[in-house]
Amino acid sequence: MKDNVIVWFRQDLRIHDNPALYEACRSGQVIPVYILDDHAAGDWKMGAASRWWLHHSLIALNKSLGGNLRLFKGDPSLTIAQLAQETSASAVYWNRAYEPWRIKRDSNIKLEMQKQGYTVQSFNGSLLWEPWDITKQDGTHYKVFTPFYRKGCLNAPAPREPLPPIELDSIVPSSTPFDIDSLQLLPKIDWDSEFYQHWQPGETGAADTLSSFLNTGLAHYRDGRNYPAKPYISTLSPHLHFGEISPNQVWYASAHTALDTSSEDALDCFHSELGWREFSYYQLYYNPNLPEKNLQTKFDRFPWKTDSSSHLSAWQKGLTGYPIIDAGMRQLWKTGYMHNRVRMVVGSFLVKNLLLHWQHGARWFWDCLLDADLASNSASWQWVAGCGADAAPYFRIFNPVTQGEKFDSEGDYIRQYIPELSNIPNKYIHTPWELSTEELLQYGVVLGETYPAPIVDLKHSRNAALEALSSIKEA
Ligand SMILES: Cc1cc2nc3c(=O)[nH]c(=O)nc-3n(C[C@H](O)[C@H](O)[C@H](O)COP(=O)(O)OP(=O)(O)OC[C@H]3O[C@@H](n4cnc5c(N)ncnc54)[C@H](O)[C@@H]3O)c2cc1C
């Protein structure tokens, strides 16, 4: 008779290429479990959009596990110890997670369970390279992306190839019903209705999304990825965040497709974006304060505005009067996602034109993004604000009008999310205020009524940002 092994699912909600599950299936009878732990997560417990995704992803995972996923809520150290006793398990396996609160919690659980005689093993199920495997020649860690990725990662041993499929005939049947509603993950207000049109959480949805990207997006990715109305990005981020697909599966599947279609150039670009994901985790691992503290401490003196409420609320609601900003913020609210180019532009606008602290933005994204990820969100906001490790220089201020004109020249993205501007001609779609009141009326727009007038002047706010920056330089 084989031993019982608890497999603790976390951000690896898949059965394929899941190292912990794979090893457990080889060595024993599997007891699969998911535990919602809002307590240890503290300030970074999952936001509303992530909870929606998790709800559906767990349903999909439970189906793949033949209805045998055990669900719990609370302190995992107690849950696992109790479950191990009840099921006479001899081992606990999980795939590693890298949030500081998880590292702390998991290390304690490992120690405690080992003391009690259990075998505890953790595996790499969500990164291409472990942070501690990528170091400079002098043993220190990288601070800048390009050398991290090109010298560090690409010269390290290649990422592990996806594991062979497993037989799931060794799962111990669950005696308790799968009560997903007990986790209370779905929003109480009806705000998620559009999510269903855009997303299919779960491993099948992840595989379909990857396959559609490989068929139609990858070859155009290098340039196409900058245009928010074009279908050349993968939209894999929530699937990757919840581990419904591994980065290894994505890395190797895209490499095979690129080889078949001679798209090596596009592949290099796509792989380097996966590299940014690795770099975000790397930064979080070496800077556990990344979500809360400026990496460049001189930004601690930055004179952020404190009377934030009206501008912040206009930004959150997509009512700033700058069409590309408003389209992005509305895309986020409606679909739980925002295109990367637009994330950078709305981030720059919040931090540089409105002079609001990047943490306001990071918090709002945390609640609204389906792919909200502590590593990528924190590292990206620090990058946008200019205070991160390898950040966009603070003086590089995205101009929302020129960004819109360059990357959405026909206004397709704007019209999709701001229907009240849909009749405005392309020439003015990014600058409706340049039309006269009569002309605007012709297109059904009354500035300040049907669509807001710009809430700040771009030139003045840019100068104010540069002045604020020079104040921290001189201090
Ligand atoms: C202010 C700001 C906040 C962000 N917050 C998050 C977040 O919470 N979660 C998140 O997953 N990404 C975040 N990103 C990074 C990026 O915008 C998204 O990963 C990307 O838009 C997801 O779309 P996609 O899957 O189509 O990406 P693709 O372009 O198809 O890229 C493939 C994968 O590579 C990874 N990736 C791509 N770009 C980046 C990047 N710049 N940084 C890290 N990983 C990247 C993602 O896992 C993505 O799914 C943020 C970016 C900014 C500017």
UniProtKB/TrEMBL annotation:
Cofactor remark: Binds 1 FAD per subunit.
Top EC group: lyase
Alphabetic keyword roster: Chromophore, FAD, Flavoprotein, Lyase
Domain Photolyase/cryptochrome alpha/beta stretches: 3-128
Keyword Methyltransferase: no
Residues annotated to bind FAD: 221, 270, 371-373
Biological process (GO), any one: photoreactive repair
PROSITE patterns linked: DNA_PHOTOLYASES_1_1, PHR_CRY_ALPHA_BETA
Reaction catalysed by this enzyme: cyclobutadipyrimidine (in DNA) = 2 pyrimidine residues (in DNA)
SUPFAM superfamilies listed in its UniProt record: Cryptochrome/photolyase FAD-binding domain, Cryptochrome/photolyase, N-terminal domain
InterPro entries (alphabetical): Crypto/Photolyase_FAD-like_sf, Crypto/Photolyase_N_sf, Cryptochr/Photolyase_FAD-bd, Cryptochrome/DNA_photolyase_1, DNA_photolyase_1_CS_C, DNA_photolyase_N, Rossmann-like_a/b/a_fold
Site (Electron transfer via tryptophanyl radical): 304, 358, 381
Cofactor(s) demanded: FAD; (6R)-5,10-methylene-5,6,7,8-tetrahydrofolate
GO molecular function, one term: FAD binding
EC number: 4.1.99.3
Protein family: Belongs to the DNA photolyase class-1 family.
Role: Involved in repair of UV radiation-induced DNA damage. Catalyzes the light-dependent monomerization (300-600 nm) of cyclobutyl pyrimidine dimers (in cis-syn configuration), which are formed between adjacent bases on the same DNA strand upon exposure to ultraviolet radiation.
Name of this protein: Deoxyribodipyrimidine photo-lyase
Originating organism: Neptunomonas concharum
